[in-house]
Structures are given as structure tokens and as C-alpha cells.
Amino acid sequence: MKVGRSLFQIALACALGAGLAACSSSGSGSPSASSSTASSSAPASSASASASSATGSAAVQKITANWTAFFNAKTPTATRISLLQDGPTFASIIKAQAGSGLASEATAKVTKVVVTSPTQATVTYSILVGGQSALANQSGVAVYQGGIWKVGVASFCGLLNLEFAGKTSSLPAACKTAG
Q1: Rounded to two decimals, what is the model's pTM?
Q2: Which of 2, 4, 19 is nearest to 100 (CA)?
Q3: Do residues 36 and 58 make contact, with C-beta atoms less than 8 angstroms apart?
Q4: Which residue, 45, 47, 81, 165, has most beta carbons within 10 Å?
Q5: pLDDT digits (tens, 9 = 90+) for 127-158
Q6: Number of H helices, E strands in the chain
Q7: How many angstroms separate the Cα of 75 from the Cα of each of 31, 51, 83, 161, 169?
Q8: For residue 48, what are the contacts with CB-CB under 8 A and spacing of at least 6?
Q9: 175 phi and psi angles, rounded to 5 deg
């Protein structure tokens, strides 16, 4: 039982300290926002660029890259916060975990992304610590918020719930109200 709990704690440390992201072996590690750089005189172009960023292979690549960055200890804390749905609500947790020793060894690997709508995707990922699987084949949610694919609060809170062994009284208020 202690081993299982330790793995959950590792997973949470990863989620909070290294950011809640996952990666593929080809992920760039840098966050990517929607590229709606069209001028204001071409709103149709902006809408098209935004729509294409939210669907298809472009969305899969952005989701993978952003989850990778979120879980990368080298990604600045402010960037990790920006890659979490409603990130500012969880800023203090992410900042507190950033110094965790386990977080510096944590990464994640995305194995599958299914875009279910222009604003949501299902992500299958594993948490790795020191390159070894600590929490395999997890199902998470990515959301398209503010023109950026982000780690969903439901996924983040799910990892927090694991760390706190299901004790909801230990969860941040935002997790208690999250879907």
C-alpha cells in the first residue's frame, strides 16, 4: 500500500511541480498558443486560423506540446500556470510544488489524443519519474481556452485527489467545484 501511495505522491509532485503536461517523443517542449495573427480587417481569416488550431492534427500537436511543457520542470512556473485551465486559481499550488525534488525528475508521455469537440480533447498519458513509469495510461482532458489548448482542471484535480488519497477535504476549493 505504501508503494502505491508513493507512486500517487510522485504523480502529484509531477503534476504540480513539473506542470500538468504530457509528451510524445517528438514534442518540442515549448508551449504553443493559437496563431490567430490575422489583422483585424480579416476576421474570417482569424476565425479560420483559430478553428484549425482547435481541430485535427494541428490540435493534437498543440495539445501534446502544451502537456509536455506543463510537465517539464524546466518550463517557467508562469508558463505552466498559463497551460492549465483556469491556471491562476491554482498558481499557489503550482508554485509550491515547483521546488519539489521529485518534480525535477518528472515528465509525462502522451500516447493518444482524441479531439472530441473544438473545445475539448481526451488525452491518454503516463507520468514518468527518472524515465520510469510511475502512473501509466491515465485518461485526461484538454480544453481549448483563450486560444490555447490547456490541461483540464478535471485532470489536474484528479492527480491532486490521488495524492491526497481521495480525502476531498485536502483538495483546493477549485477542485471541489470543478466538474
Answers
A1: 0.71
A2: 19
A3: no
A4: 81
A5: 888 888 888 999 999 999 999 999 999 998 88
A6: 7, 4
A7: 9, 27, 10, 24, 30
A8: none
A9: -75, -30
